[in-house]
Amino acid sequence: MQVGDELTPITRSIDQTDVDAYAEAAGDFNPIHIDEEFAKTTQFGGTIAHGMMVAAMLPELMATEFKRDWATTGKLKIRFRAPVRPGTTVTTHGQVKRVRDTETGTEITCTVGVRDQDGEAAITGDATVTISNDD
Amino acid sequence: MPLDYAALAVGDTISDRTFPIDTNAVEKYVGAVRDQSGVFDGADSEPIVPPMAVAAFALRGVLEDLGIPNGTLHTGQEMTFSGAVPVGDTLSCQAKVAQNSVRAGFRFIGVGMDVRDRSNRQVMSAKSMIMVPA
Question: CB distance from A40 to chain B under 8 Å?
């Protein structure tokens, strides 16, 4: 891969059923995600998806491109910029910003993120993977 | 008794847990996030746990031990994965306070996590930032 190359985006619609399923799978039952009545009393005016649920699209983005190298060498640094409400469609983006050779392989760093259907950033960050010399 | 967040000092251990990751947990996770990368299904080799699932399961224990109040928000996350985790492994997670500060009416708690497999090999290090109403 070369600097400037783009990763294939992933688009997903998120509804409350997805959020409830993630709460069950991850064991995170914070009412801000699953209790509409409670969430209405917060600054968000309703439930929001778990940040880690939306963020899971980024490892998927990287794993799709870099396969198991991602699982063994991946680094992800992200910030949650804006909440994602159920009913939102989100899309990942990723672009190679640095490629360098190291002792163990080729290290590739990508600018990654998730945006909603209006283009607003929900998550921004960097992801780095090392492609082993043995591959 | 709930934790006194103001008394948490950098370096304090707030969670030290062991948790198995079985096939059911992984399938439930992959189904919930709808991961379609195909990397974790074991079609080509031994099935492994999605790294983000490791982070999510580790974080679950930390948040339980912190006893976070309703309305707490997760504002940032850093993770470094250093080894594939085969499905069926048992992991341990030790979490320590990495930051504790108050700003604009919210307490920001940074939690560093060290996750190891059953042979004590580190498989993930992470830092989570959470924002708790002060």
Answer: no
Residue-wise pLDDT for B17-67, tens only, equals 999 999 999 999 999 998 888 776 666 678 889 889 999 999 999 999 998
Listed in sequence order, the residues at least 6 apart from A53 whose beta carbon sits closer than 8 Å to its beta carbon are: A14, A18, A19, A22, A26, B32, B33
Please tell me the number of Cα atoms within 13 Å of B24 on its side-chain side: 2
List alpha helices for chain B, DSSP H. 23-33, 51-66
Coil vs helix vs strand at A51: helix
ipTM of this complex: 0.87
Q: Please give the Cα distance from B40 to B87 (Å, whole number).
A: 9
Length, in residues, of chain B: 134
Q: Best residue in A76, A90, A123 to probe B by mutation, most B CBs within 10 Å?
A: A76
B56/A59 Cβ within 8 A: no
CA distance B106 to A56: 26
- Cβ-contact B89, B51 below 8 angstroms: no
* Sequence spans of domains, chain B: 5-20+51-133
Look at A83-87, B80-84, B125-129 and tell me which has the smallest mean pLDDT: B80-84
Token code pair at residue A1: 């891969």
Q: Which CATH architecture has domain B5-20+51-133?
A: Roll (3.10)
